[in-house]
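[audit] Reproducing an earlier prediction to check determinism. Same input, same settings, fresh worker. If the tokens differ from the archived copy the diff job will pick it up downstream; this log only records the rerun itself.
[audit] input (376 residues):
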Amino acid sequence: MRKLILPLAMVASTAAFAADIEVHGDVNMDYASYFDSDFDPTNAGNQDIDLALHAHLDENISVVVMGTTHSTFVDQNGDLQESEVRHGLARSTAMGSDGRNNSFDFDGVQFRWDVSHEVSLVFGDMTYSAGAYNYYFWRDVSRYAVITREQKLRGVGLDVGNEKYGKGSFYLGASDNTDHTIAMFTTYAFPLLNHTDEHLIITPSLDWVFGSEIERTHTYVLGTEVDWSKSYEKFNYDIYVVWGLHPYKGKGVHSFLLEPSMNYAIFNLATTFAYTITDKEYDAAPQLMTDDQMLFAIEPSFNIHKKYTLGVSYEYHDPDTEKHKDDFTFLGMNHYLYPTMKTEIVIWYGYNFTDTDNTPFGKGRFSLGLSGKASF
């Protein structure tokens, strides 16, 4: 770790004399204790940190260097996997494990040329995804999405548009999946309504990978996001709807997401309903881009203070609707703290109602913990 930090610091300090340097990042971490039926705890701590250094060579040209670090664990097959922040015991890093503290790794480099205020050319490493969830267990787009999970390529890209007329992207290059594939991604957000008190945005997306060894079950994914929000003084609501289609063994798999939410004065209500129509000839798991074929979650909450919100969450999970006794429910409470802008700390606890240990909580029944995230 020290061997990596010193060269980066020297490079950054040297470049600062010739360029305008900015550092941006997303920091996400947690701690949790999972108690089994005998009330014996298993403690875990995870982190997911992504940093990017932006060097503006002039007003139109910039270079972006990205780095990342994730806590890791060894799965039941003996393979090293990245853990998940605030997800459950099954994919967490145990306290005291060597995998909890890892060095930063290189995560990509970009050259950006802002041809105009509405057009930017991108050369290098690009990351894309579409159809993200607002449901807090599935916010990690590298693992969960309705349309396409996070993908990476090295090639050329085009970012166009503005807030008034919409924004879009087109990326084409060599996929990170294997050395035999070419990936293409295109998306555009159309603002059909763009008023102070009402917004309606429709965003179609297409992700296509060409090659004989693509290292995923689907060659293409297409889908559409619809986001409609409306405000009436103290009453505000938002409806987010997503549809995604990807083939599995030659047959289409359709994923749907409905996330309505509302706020009136100090009261908030957020809900999530997700369902995937799969081919019943095969197990659901390899056809999904989530953990569950069907999910329903609802959380009423109250803004006790401008920096504190109290929420009660109920969740129903069914990994495969064709199988019995694999579903479970979770009931919990969340204490949200907002120390400053773009920062959130959550103190949470809850109970996993199930007859099986094959859930993200493993043998855990009662669990509690805290998680924090910040963007800068």
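[audit] rerun output stored. Observation attached for the diff report: The helical segments are 2-15.
[audit] end
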